[in-house]
Design brief:
CATH architecture: 3-Layer(aba) Sandwich
Mean pLDDT: 94
Shape: globular
Order of helices and strands: HHEHHEHEHEHEE
CATH superfamily: NADH Oxidase
Strand order of the largest sheet: 1-2-4-3
Distance between the termini: 28 Å
Number of helices: 7
Low-confidence stretches: none
Length: about 200
Amino acid sequence: MEKPDGKYPIHDLLRNRWSPVAFSERLVSHEDLRALLEAARWAPSCYGDQPWVFIVATKDQPDVFDRLLRCLMDANIAWAQYAPVLMMTVARRHFTHNGQPNRYAWHDIGLAVGGMLVQATHLGLSVHQMAGFDPIKARETFAIPEDHEPVSVIAIGYHGDVGNLSEALQARETTPRSRHPLGKFVFSDTWGQVAPFIE
């Protein structure tokens, strides 16, 4: 995948991150997995509550891996089955210190996964996040408590051979990435008014 053309310079760890669908069967070391989770551990969170849980399934646990894989939608199973690691993110919906609803839990999980993505890129790993899974099946499969909410599933591994993908997925894999320009979402003064420092 070619690097995106950014209008403003950013760190290569951010610029090089992307979400492939072609994964190699090469296993991810436990050391690297621990590093990813340690990066997530140090993410900021409201009240330092760390409202995240990660359910991790690796190819060296085939039964657990298959159970998590079967929670995905068919379109994601088609490619995610080749990744050596699947990880489900789960949000704890209430603060631990007062039991009140934590409306920031999903935001904080995003921060934790964001840190994980940067660490993964540093280690030469690829990460692809998925919304396409069955949260009810996930809850039943992994006995997730009612005060926790399945949020996403992540495929982790090394980039693989694009030629092993279907034609549709090959096209998806090789399409250049694009993002909205800053002027479309950076406002000032009133909604829709582009901030004056945006060129």
